[in-house]
Fold this sequence. Notes:
Largest sheet: 9 strands, mixed
Structural class: alpha/beta
CATH topology of the domain at 9-143 and 224-323 and 362-387: Aminopeptidase
Number of helices: 14
Keywords: Signal
Distance between the termini: 58 Å
Strand content: 15-25%
Oligomer: single chain
Low-confidence stretches: 1-5, 11-22
CATH class of the domain at 9-143 and 224-323 and 362-387: Alpha Beta
Radius of gyration: 21 Å
Protein name: DUF2817 domain-containing protein
Order of helices and strands: HHHEEEHEHHHHHEEEHEHEHHH
Number of strands: 9
Shape: globular
Amino acid sequence: MRWKISFLNILLLISFFTGCSTDNQEFFEAENYFSSSYAEARRKFIGVSLGSGAHIESLENPNKGPSGELLYTDIALFESEKAKNILVLISGTHGVEGFAGSGIQIGLLEEGIISELPPDTSLLMIHALNPYGFSHIRRFDENNIDPNRNFVDHSEDPRENKGYEVLKDSISPESVSFFTNIKSLFRLMGYGLKNRSMSKLKVAISRGQYTDPDGLFYGGRFKGWVHNTIEYITQKYLFQAERVIVLDFHTGLGDYGSCEIITNEKENSEVYIRAKKIWGNKVKTTYSEDSVSIHIASSLKLALPSMLSNKVEVTVVSPEFGTLSPLKVFWALRSENWLHHHGSKDHPKAKKIKSRLLQAFYPDDSDWKVSVWKQGRDIVKEALSSLDIKN
């Protein structure tokens, strides 16, 4: 009989003989739920979904991955689409942020979440909603559209962001030389000081802009892949439901490893009240300065409920997991955006720039991954418990 020795097996044996096998085994198993590429994440997700009895529909994106691979948004339905209650879990709305959400989805299936579904409840997982961004290590889609700035009426005149227009050359520069970076930093800080508000600077940078197709946080002038895909999924899978909870997983805002559950609804809204009842003080609204996010009026969270009948009780929130400081995250986005539009994959700094962007949204840290997994698992189970309560 041959023994297959691996580093992981050795560590598990050591942990067993030192009396810490349970905690360490959980740690190693949790880390294995996460992936190092879109292709690996998709392979794991499809495999465990089929093994859990899912009906899978794969929507092919017209673009290719960095190695020429096909790209898909995969939809996995567990139980019946005719169920009265549906819990929806989304990964990868913002591309590169999909590594975290994918890990949570895979972990839940590996640990048998399907056996915990309440009566008359279905689970719908949307894996890699923005597969282009996921595979290419970008936050944005193939048209540089930020999906959470794209849910607007494109027949109307584009929304203005005067702050972005003033700071455009500093937010989305054509050069990232040392001199340009220093100049941009002083200009950005000066804008905040002049307006006596760092909040106004945040709005200028990240609220969304519709005039610069090559710039950061571009909302687009037409419906992007994510917008069209969410409309399709909503009409096909959610229209018969009476209660829907949507968890759209994100990373990049907040303290390292912490989680805030974000809603774009006011504190007196039914959505906010329901969310607080389910998840308690983890819930924050973007109408409050307590949230790590500014208010985004063109987000999936606000748009999805309008795609369903007003008779459907819809609660859409974004669990947001913190990574690096806001400045480091912004600088990583700024550099990667420059590389995408003005550099090339063969640029001497390309690998470093992509690595920094990945670290900004998916830190190479086992403790961070395990923390994200545990918090994500608990958030999902709390959502299921709320659906188990009869009206």
